[in-house]
Amino acid sequence: MSEQPPLLVETAEGICRLTLNRPEKLNSFNVALGEALQQALDVCASDDAIRAVVLTGAGRAFCAGQDLGDRDPSKMTEAPDLGSTLERVYNPIIRRIRALEKPVLCAVNGVAAGAGANLALACDIVFAAKSAKFIQVFARIGLLPDSGGTWMLPRLIGEARAKALAMTTEPLAADTAADWGLIWKAVEDDQVLAETLKLAGQLAVGPTVAYGLIKQAVQAAADQSLDKHLDLERDYQRIAGRTPDYAEGVAAFLEKRPAKFRGVR
Ligand code: LHQ
């Protein structure tokens, strides 16, 4: 029997759906999955027909982080270099998601643990099934949160909660994650993918250039003063104002009709 691909990639109606597909290992990452996700994100960036991305998991989990069977120190002759795994597998994924000038939505269909939790948090809009849990599980195996976790968590929920989640490794329920502002919404389990795809469908016919600029501007805010940021908004608005979607948006408003955005510069 041929092995299942570690990542399912389906593109339709402007949406690229990426499904982590190692359900028997709770979609934990091996090298093949990491490489496949990097390649798929490159296609999402370069294909103008793709205007929104949806990331989800097959089976009962979203993602359990690193496949620990693949990084088992007892099977190695030397101490492992986990920094090299981050450099090759996880950091390029997080960087690609954050740099992608299109909305990346995440449907957290079940448990999101370790790098799997932080992969979800790197996405722009996160829906989670009410039964899903986010677990900063790293310290259980003597590690610290990676894949942007120690950067993202304090920004989203503050130092106190960030440190406690990482040190206690306590599972955080989807509802609490939404209440704390860690994610966008917790929804009924059987609705999580449908709700995410519905919003992705709306965004895929929206002003894609503006979405890309919104994303980059919000992300840049973490690193600079208001003074610098006002300059950035001026520059980005200049770009947005020159898109055909701005002209179309204003025309549609004045003509009292729905806008027909093309998503191009
Ligand atoms: C797994 C895994 C898994 C392999 C479930 N690996 N098989 C970066 C750099 C390099 C190296 C280190 O890591 C990192 C980043 C990281 O992500 S570190 C964190 C790694 N992840 C974990 O420590 C999570 C380990 N998994 C769990 O704690 C539990 O499985 C969770 C809480 C996710 C779910 O618990 P349950 O719902 O009770 O499921 P389960 O534990 O029974 O798992 C089901 C199966 O999946 C089981 O296999 P089996 O053959 O017994 O049915 C697990 O062994 C397998 N599995 N996670 N990460």
Q: Can you describe what's shown?
A:
Helix 1 packs parallel to helix 2 (82-99). 40% of the residues are buried. This protein has two domains: 7-204, 2-enoyl-CoA Hydratase, Chain A, domain 1 (Alpha-Beta Complex); 208-255, Lyase 2-enoyl-coa Hydratase, Chain  A, domain 2, CATH 1.10.12. The model has no long low-confidence stretch (mean pLDDT 97). By secondary structure, the chain is an alpha/beta fold. The strands form two sheets. Strands 1-2-3-5-7-10 form a six-stranded mixed β-sheet, with helices on both faces. The chain has a four-stranded mixed β-sheet with strand order 4-6-8-9. It is built from ten helices and ten strands. Helix 1 links the parallel strand 2 and strand 3 (52-57).
Rounded to an integer in angstroms, the radius of gyration calculated over CA atoms is 19 Å
Number of helices: 10
CATH T-level topology of the largest domain: 2-enoyl-CoA Hydratase, Chain A, domain 1
How is the largest sheet built, in terms of strand order? 1-2-3-5-7-10
Mean pLDDT: 97
**Gross CATH architecture of the largest domain:** Alpha-Beta Complex
Strand percentage lies at: 15-25%
Bound molecules: ligand LHQ
Largest sheet: 6 strands, mixed
Spans of at least 5 consecutive residues with low confidence: none
* Percentage of residues in helical conformation: 40-55%
Structural class: alpha/beta
Total strands: the figure is: 10
Q: Globular, elongated, flat, extended or rod-shaped: what is the shape?
A: globular
* SSE string, helices as H and strands as E: EEHEEHEEHEEHHEHEHHHH
CATH superfamily of the largest domain: 2-enoyl-CoA Hydratase, Chain A, domain 1
What is the CATH class designation of the largest domain? Alpha Beta
Q: Report, as a whole number of angstroms, the end-to-end distance.
A: 46 Å
How many individual domains? Answer: 2
